[in-house]
Amino acid sequence: MTQVKLMVDLGNSETRAVAQIVEGSTVKHTKGYLLDNHFVVENLAMKETYKPYFSSEDFSKLDSNILEVSLEVGATKANKLVLWGELATANLPKKLRTPVSHLAKADNLLNYVVLINLMDKVLDWVSTLYPTSSKQALSQELKFDLAILVPPAQAVSARETFDKNFVGSFNYTNLYDKAEFTLNVSSIMVFPEGYASFYSVFLSYSDLQARPLYKDLAERDVLIIDFGEGTTDLIGVSKQRLLEGLKHTIKIGGSTILSKVRSSVNKRLGLDIPIASFKDVLKTCEVRYGSDVYDVKTDVGEAIYSVASDIAVEYSLTCKVQR
Known about the structure:
Layout: E1 3-10, E2 14-23, E3 26-36, E4 39-43, E5 64-73, E6 76-84, H1 85-91, H2 109-129, H3 135-141, E7 143-150, H4 155-166, E8 168-174, E9 179-192, H5 195-202, E10 221-227, E11 232-238, E12 241-250, H6 254-269, H7 281-284, E13 286-289, E14 292-295, H8 297-322
Parallel strand pairs: 1-7, 7-9
Antiparallel strand pairs: 1-2, 2-3, 4-6, 5-6, 5-8, 8-9, 10-11, 11-12, 13-14
Helix pairs in contact: 6-8
C-alpha cells in the first residue's frame, strides 16, 4: 500500500500543506499546497438547489470543488454539502464561511471538512502520477499519515481528539467527479504551530540535515515567534526539544496591525476607508480609496512598533507567571 505523508497547517483563512508519496522508505514525490479556506456549507437537504453547479463548465476542478461529506466529531453528526473555490466565491459570496471558531481546532467540524478537501486534492495529484489506476482505486490503496499543526496550548488535547475522530477509513462523494471515494487515515501526529517553522530553517529540504549556517541551533535554546493572521504563538525549544513549559498563544496578529493602520489613517485623514482597502498595506505602504492613493508608511511603521511592543509585554508577563 502506497503511503502519503501529509503535514498540514490549519490556518483560519488559508491551509498550507506538504504532501510526500513514500514507497518503502523512499520519498518518491513531494508537492506543496496553499488552499483558500473560504467555502459554503449546506445541509444535504439543499442539494437540489445547487445541482446546476455539479457539471458547470464555468469552473475548473483545479480552483473549485463540491463534496458531500458525512462526519461525526464528538457528539456532533453532520451530513453536509460543501462548495469550494471560485465556484463558491463567485456565486455565493454572502454564504462563505471559514473555520474560525471559539472551539479548539480538533473540536471544530469545519477543520475536518478542510482536511477532506485537501486530501481529495492530494488524490487528484496522485492520479496524475499513477495514470494506470483510477482515482477511486487509488483512494482505496493509499494510506495517509497526517501531521497537523495546532496552537501550542491545544497540542496535547488535540492528539487524542484528532485520533478519535479521524483515524480510520471513511467515504465521501466528489460531485465534480461524480464518484464516491475512500480515505484511509492510519495515523495522526500533532505538533505546535511554529515547531515546523524551526525545522524549516534548521534542516535542509534536500537531505534533512542541519544547514551549515544554522547548525548551532542544535545545541541552543531558541524562542520561536510564529506571527499569524489572528494570533502569535510563542514556543521554546532547547537542543531541538520542545519546552513544555513555554508554549503560549497571544491574541495579536497581522489583522491587529491592519486594524491599527486603518484606525490611524482614518483618524488622520478624516475618512472611513473600509478594512478591505488595507489588505496589501504592509507590502505597499499605500492605500487606494476611490481615485486617490495615500502614502501611509508612517502609519504602518507606528502600527508595527505598537504590536511588537504589545507582544513583548505579553511575553514578559507570561515568563513572570511561569517562574
